Amino acid sequence: MLKYIKHAFLFRWNMLFFLGGAAFAAMSGHGDALLPILSGVELAYLVGLSSIPRFRTAIDAKLAAEGRGAVYEATGPAQVSLQRMLEALPPLSLRRFLLLRQRCFEMRDIASGVQGKMAGASSSDADSIRTPALDKLLFLFLKLLMSQAGLDRFLKSTSEPELTARLKEVQTRLAAAQTAKDERVTRSLQDSLADAQLRLDNYQKSTKDADFVAVELDRIETKIKALIEMGVSRQDPDLFSTQVTAAAESMAQTEDAVKNLQSLSGLSDQLAEPPAILNADLGKVMVR
Q1: Residue 148, phi-psi category: left (phi > 0), alpha (psi -120 to 50), beta (remainder)
Q2: Is the pLDDT of residue 126 over 50?
Q3: First-to-last C-alpha distance (Å) of the chain
Q4: How far does Cα 250 stand from its chain's mean position?
Q5: pLDDT attached to residue 173
Q6: Does the pTM of the predicted model rise above 0.85?
Q7: 100: closest CA among 141, 53, 65?
Q8: Radius of gyration of the CA atoms of the chain, in A
């Protein structure tokens, strides 16, 4: 109870009222009569506010966030790497990620409001939307966004018609060299033909990878939204945590795809383990 009274007393408007009233009472010459009245009103305010469930829930959430923040300071490099990843995203991809993260916070606030009205509700339930498994899903979503950005850059650097035309040109020149029975030119063009075919195959594979990444981004985004919305409506933290963990563990195929695209996304130099995304301070990351 003392912690709630302390935060109620230190609320800036209450401090202004109380100190202003005390100063007025002292200057009025009737402090012996006014100060006890002021103290009684203040005490009634503090006890009354501290007994309101929503106020207590808000204070619990604030203290929990401060505690997590203190722990997170020890993992500063993780936050730096996370911010670098976000800053490397194109504007639309960054906006998509931040909006999804914000959706998680909105659902947490809704859960906090609902539980504040429920008799006997635990203040930690509203904070259950923050789980390591949910951070893992968000981190996978972020890595897919980086993979998508890398694929887009690669695919825009050339085109399939251009690669196909190059392949046909080499085939034509090779046929002419074979007709002329020029072995040196033939061997050189055969090697060029293999490289041209390899480039075309790689481009076509990257196109399929881009399609897969786009589909996976939509799937994971929808799954995260569905999980957090069900977590609010069902008000069962244990069930929510179990479902999120199961969803995170079912992403092995997507994780493999991300690993295969590391050379394009630059993820090989980034974080290997999911950082505390929902608890990270992303104040320096702006939607451009």
Answers
A1: alpha
A2: no
A3: 44
A4: 19
A5: 94
A6: no
A7: 141
A8: 30
